[in-house]
Structure formats: structure tokens, C-alpha cells
Amino acid sequence: MKTRQLLVIPDNSTDATVEVTVLIPAHNEEKSIAMTLEAVLSQDRPADRVVVVANGCDDRTADIARSFPVTVMEFPRLAHRKAEALNIAWAEYAKYSDVVVCLDADTVLPPNALRDWEIELTSDVTLGGSSSKFTMQQPGILSRLQKAEFATWTDTALRKGWTSVLAGTGCAISGAALRVIAARDDRQGPWSYESATEDFELTYRIRESGWKCHVSTTVRAYTDSMSTIRALWGQRMKWQTGTVEDLLTFGLNRLTWRDWGQQALGLLNGVMRLLWIFVLVGAISMGMTIAWFWWCFPLLFVWLEVYRSMRIPHRDRKDMLLAASFFPAELFTLLRLAWFWASWASVVHGKMTHKKIDRWAAQYAAEGA
Question: In angstroms, rounded to a whole number, what is the distance separating the alpha carbons of residues 47 and 114?
Fold first, then answer.
């Protein structure tokens, strides 16, 4: 297995034409695929090719996609799901493209997306990929909490100037980078079948090969949130267990030490939160007087949430009130810590028993797909 690839930088200085291909894997997305395609076909910079990969759909996703001037590939349920759908479409239609845009079938891009991504990737040949700033606009408390969460993720990535995940929700990747990764002997295309978080794994391989990856300052994508706690749990368990498994594969190195640090902080945060709740509840149950400084913690949490809410895109009064109300955001934080700890327990159990849960199937079941 190759562990290191040489950086191959394309020379686009004399090439006046840049080919941009959009790949859209879709599984039962009849409610959203039309909006996604309308946005793609309304770009300031038109795509040279748009490919929808309908994978195991038992609804009208493929039929609706065919009503648009795009290429539609339709398959029964692929064994490796999204990663395999992307690899097949890439090999057939995007292998020699200069820029490959990966887009979820429930994501809407603004008109500037393809133009700005093309400029980013062609003006900096060391840039391997650019992720969008994605957000949600559905009503409801759970959706607003997810919107606030991703706003914080976006701000952190923009402040750092790089990202460890080119989000498949909406991102653009250098065609040269994808060709280098696809040449590895541990996969059948750029996207690995061994990872439940193929976006994280691919981004790591791109960075390992010498390219940079960042979040675009100008491209924002709008996508659907998880509408129920059960669906959210299934999605996040897939994300978190996949990330942990990938980190165990990558090991601790210059590219992963920050990700490992985030894992350690997550575990520590869980312990500290539970310890604070345990001590507070214990003191109240025993009739003890609670010192004033104990209330500094919830006040600090509220201040942080309100501060973060000011950075939420398209925020309104309800977003601000939700942040200031303490309990919804705190319960959401506890839920995040719960799937964080549960994912680690799942990975450890899987290593001990040599049994691996199909997280894609679990997510589909949680979403009721």
C-alpha cells in the first residue's frame, strides 16, 4: 500500500479552457433533486457536464433528473453506496476534468459557486480542494441548533485557513489531485470503500499528497438538516465512528494531531460536563447552599452561545433567543457528547469483536428511507 504520493501540479498557465464537472450522487431524493439541479443549471459559470448518479432509488429521483439537460446514471443499490457511485461517475465522465464538484442531491448552490471555485482552484495550483460554507434554513429548534453548529464549524475553518474535511455536501476538488489519489493501490477510484466518512479520508489523502484544502470565503451551500433526533443520531454516529476509525488508520502525525486533539477535548468536555451536573444535583439534593460562582458556568455557556449566534448566516431573532435560553443549546451539547462517547464505544467494541456496523444502513433506517 502506498503511504505517500508525490505532488503533481498541473500547469494551467497556458490553458485557456477549464473543464468543470458536477457529480451528484442521489438516493431517494425526489423531493429535493429538482431544486438542486435548477441551482446547478443557473450558475454564472455553467458546468461543462452535470452527472446525477441515482443509486438504489425506489422513488422518482431518476425520472425527475432526466427532465433536466443532465446525464443520469441509474444503478440498483451499490454495495459501497455513495463512494462507489462517485467512483463510477468520476471514471466515466470526470476523470480528465480540471475541477470536479461534488454535491449532495439536497444541496442548493448560489449562482457564483462554480465561477468562484474555478477561480480558486486555477489561481492557486497548490490548492487541492475547496469546501462550501454550508447552512440550513428549515424552521424548527432542531434545525436551528444544527445551523448554529455548522456556523461555528465554518468560522473555525475560515479562521484557520484550512480544513480537514472537504464536505461532500458541496465542494470542488482539483482534477489533478483526484487522479493522483485514484492511482493509489488501496482503492478503485478517488473515494475509498474502507471508510464510512469518505470525504474525510479523501481530504486526508489529498493533504498527504501535498495539496492544501480550505473552506471557500465566497461559496455558501444550502442543504437540508436532520428533521428528527433519531435521524440526527444516525447521521452523526456514522460521521463520528468513521472519523475515529480513519484516525486510527492514519495514526498521529502532522496532519492529524489537531483532529486527535479535538477527540481528546471532546472526551474531556464530556467528563467535565457530567461532573458539573453530578456535583450540582448532589449538592441541591443534600440541601447544601450553592455558592454563587457555580452559576458562572451556565452564564459562560450562554455568553458563548449568544456570541456564536451572532455569526450564524441569515440569523433572525429566534436564533438569538434560542442561544440565550440556555437549555436547548445545552441539551444539544449533551446530545453531541452522547454520540461522541457512543461512537468511541462502538469503535472499541468493533475492534474487540471484529464486527463492524453498517453505518450507512443505520442512517437510512434512522431517516426512515
Answer: 7
Query: What pTM was computed for the model?
Result: 0.88
Which of the listed residues 225, 248, 268 is the one where a domain comes to its end?
A: 225
**DSSP strand pairing (170-174 vs 127-135):** antiparallel
Residue 284: inside a domain: yes
> pLDDT, tens digit, for every residue of 106-145?
999 999 999 999 999 999 999 999 999 989 888 899 999 9
The answer on 286 and 201 residing in a single domain is no
What is the pLDDT, as a whole number, of residue 135?
A: 92
Given 180, 208, 225, which residue is the final one in a domain? Answer: 225
Range of the domain at 148: 20-225
Encode the chain in three state secondary structure.
Answer: CCCCCCCCCCCCCCCCCCCEEEEEEECCCCCCHHHHHHHHCCCCCCCCEEEEEEECCCCCHHHHHHCCCCEEEEECCCCCHHHHHHHHHHHHHHCCCCEEEEECCCEECCCCHHHHHHHHHHHCCCEEEEEEEEECCCCCHHHHHHHHHHHHHHHHHHHHCCCCCCCCCEEEEEHHHHHHHHCCCCCCCCCCCCCCCHHHHHHHHHHHCCCEEEEEEEEEEEECCCCCHHHHHHHHHHHHHHHHHHHHHHCCCCCCHHHHHHHHHHHHHHHHHHHHHHHHHHHHHCCCCCCHHHHHHHHHHHHHHHHHHCCCCCCCHHHHHHHHCCHHHHHHHHHHHHHHHHHHHHHHHHHHHCCCCCHHHHHHHHHCC
- In a domain, residue 216? The reply is yes
Within this chain, do residues 219 and 261 fall inside the same structural domain, yes or no? no
33 and 123 belong to one structural domain: yes
**Nearest-5° Cα angle at 244, 329 to 261:** 70
Percent of the chain beyond pLDDT 70? 94
Cα 349 to Cα 230, 326, 356: the distances in Å are 22, 34, 9
Q: What is the pLDDT of residues 169-191, one digit of tens each?
A: 999 999 999 999 999 999 999 99
Residue 210 within a domain: yes
